């Protein structure tokens, strides 16, 4: 389960996808399959969430990893490289960015 805390020693990755309403569900299905069958089984994976806006033009993905290297190893795998080619075909653009938590508020 993701943890949002400045003190947590982990790697947070936020990926945004620019999609059309016509491809949004297809991409959500592809991402769901990737997390269910591959990403969640990779070393260092902690948790993730998928979010879609009401216009179905943006998907945001929040994931956490034990270490930066765990996320990078997953991205470099043959399996994920093939999946990313399919993902790329379903969206205008996507960009995974590694973040450090600055603060969290309850």
From TrEMBL:
Pfam family, one: ABM
Domain ABM span(s) in chain numbering: 11-102
Keywords annotated in UniProt: Monooxygenase, Oxidoreductase
Span of the signal peptide: none
Gene Ontology molecular function, alphabetical: monooxygenase activity
InterPro entries cross-referenced by the UniProt entry: ABM_dom (IPR007138), Dimeric_a/b-barrel (IPR011008)
Entry-linked SUPFAM superfamilies: Dimeric alpha+beta barrel (SSF54909)
Coiled coil: none
Protein name: Antibiotic biosynthesis monooxygenase
Native species: Rhodovulum adriaticum (Rhodopseudomonas adriatica)
């Amino acid at each position: 389960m993701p943890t949002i805390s400045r003190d947590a020693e982990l790697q947070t990755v936020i990926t945004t996808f620019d999609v059309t309403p016509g491809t949004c569900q297809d991409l959500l299905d592809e991402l769901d399959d990737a997390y269910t069958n591959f990403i969640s089984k990779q070393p260092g994976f902690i948790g993730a969430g998928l979010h879609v806006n009401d216009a179905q033009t943006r998907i945001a993905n929040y994931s956490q990893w034990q270490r930066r290297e765990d996320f990078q190893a997953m991205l470099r795998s043959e399996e994920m490289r093939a999946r990313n080619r399919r993902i790329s075909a379903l969206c205008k653009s996507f960009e995974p960015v590694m973040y450090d938590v600055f603060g969290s508020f309850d």
